Amino acid sequence: MKSKAVFLDRDGVINRKPSEHRYVTHVSELVILPHVNKFLSRVKKSGYLVIVVTNQRGISLGHLNHDTLADIHKCINNKLNNYIDAFYYCHHDHHHQCACRKPKPGLILQAVKDFNIDLHKSHLIGDSQTDIQAAHAAGIKNAHLIPSNSSLLKILDNT
Length: 159
Ligand SMILES: [Mg+2]
Ligand SMILES: [Zn+2]
Fold this sequence. Notes:
By secondary structure, the chain is α/β, with parallel strands linked by helices. The protein has helices spanning about 35-45, 65-80, 105-115, 130-140, 155-159; strands spanning about 5-10, 50-55, 85-90, 125, 140-145. Helix 2 (about 65-80) links the parallel strand 2 (about 50-55) and strand 3 (about 85-90). The chain binds magnesium ion (MG) and zinc ion (ZN). Magnesium ion (MG) binds near residues 11, 13 and 127.
């Protein structure tokens, strides 16, 4: 049987988004947004996989490396009861023209392959149009745009 998933953007959805052209480069800069824990606990109880899809061009720009990013993701998951099943990230910059940097659907499609996900039963939540575009390009109709650094619980009230 296929699984269903809630795809989440990271910065501005799970943790506080740094200001424009700034990046989370160390675990000390992580601030988990309010109610994320509660949101994820409900989502997991409803049988969804939780998958993070995030653009991290800071790696390409030399602000952090893959190991540091892995530490940051481990730290996020520790703070969230390990509710997150997987993190997928794009480390490329615009000019690399990769297939994974959102609005491209590559990160989502890789997760679909790895977890045998039914996109029709899945959702994506993001705080920028490129998240929504990636969802639509992958075939997710249930794409929810939220204001940056807001509460995910509003999504539950509306669905
Ligand atoms: Mg974001
Ligand atoms: Zn990429």
